[in-house]
Amino acid sequence: MNMAAENHSLSVTNMVSDIDWTVTRVLNYQIFPASGITVASLLSLIFLFVLVVVAERVARRYFVTRLLRRTHLEPAMQFALARVFGYALLALGFFVSLQMVGVNLTSLSFLAGAVGVGFGFGLQNIISNFISGLIILAERPIAIGDRVEIGGVAGQVREINLRSTTVVTNDNMAIIVPNADFITQRVTNWSYEDPRVRFRVPFGVAYGTDLPKLRKLMLEVADEHPKALKDPQPELFFVSFGDSSLNFEIAVWSSESTLSPRRFHSDLYFAIEKKLRESGIEIPYPQQDLHVRTVVGNAPPVPPR
């Protein structure tokens, strides 16, 4: 009985020893012999990278909440500084992690160069967007909360990352715009510096309209709108003599460009139509006059005058 127990104990010891030897061999297996990276060091590196990412998020959130919000910096500047702080912390954390696991960075330089050349052609757009993101955070042509218009997309900037920027439209659709587009394309920033913008609303009235009366009515439209600014004052411009109408343009200043410019335009059109209809001023339809001349006998046709 004792002999059987001893044999069983010896068998278990040998099995544990074999498992330990196998695990040790696997962990000490060098994935990249030139750099000294083993399976154990790779697992440790992954664990350290995860810790660095978690630490970066916690530190950035603490940095923004506890420090930057106590300053008088604009929210956009706070966001940019927090992003730069986070990326710098990630870079430092990854570098320290590689040093802790004993990775020979010098031996990896040739491999990194070869891989960089291979991936460089395929990652041109990503690198371009990354550099553009740094330029945006440094120069700040756009900021969080700005209303921008680019490539047919108009909305409010919700988030600026190093690769892309999130623009939310008035229909609550999130549009992901590559950062390179903000550098290479023409961008309209309705919120840049002064949020006040002059809206120009064109319309036409019939020939023979009392123009002094029209001017008074249109200035009343601008004055009655709750979101139209009184300073600078609204103006009415006589644009041209049209084929069927006298063409005018009412110019009204407002800060609605950052919120709902389309609704502001629509409200002005409704108010103009109502004011003209109540005052009996005609909004003409496009029309053409056709003159028919009759030729009698062999008389030559009368040339048109």
Structure commentary:
With 305 residues, the protein is α+β, with helices and mostly antiparallel strands. It folds into 3 domains: 18-122, no CATH class; 141-189, SH3 type barrels (Roll); 197-278, Alpha-Beta Plaits (2-Layer Sandwich), CATH 3.30.70.100. Helix content is 49%, strand content 18%. It has helices spanning 2-27, 39-67, 75-100, 108-122, 124-139, 179-184, 211-224, 261-278; strands at 30-32, 37-38, 147-150, 153-160, 164-168, 174-178, 188-189, 197-205, 235-241, 246-254. The strands form 3 sheets. Strands 6-5-4-3-7 form a 5-stranded antiparallel sheet. Helix 2 packs antiparallel against helix 3 and helix 7 crosses helix 8 (261-278). The chain is elongated. The model has no long low-confidence stretch (mean pLDDT 77).
Briefly, what is this?
This protein has 305 residues and is an alpha+beta fold.
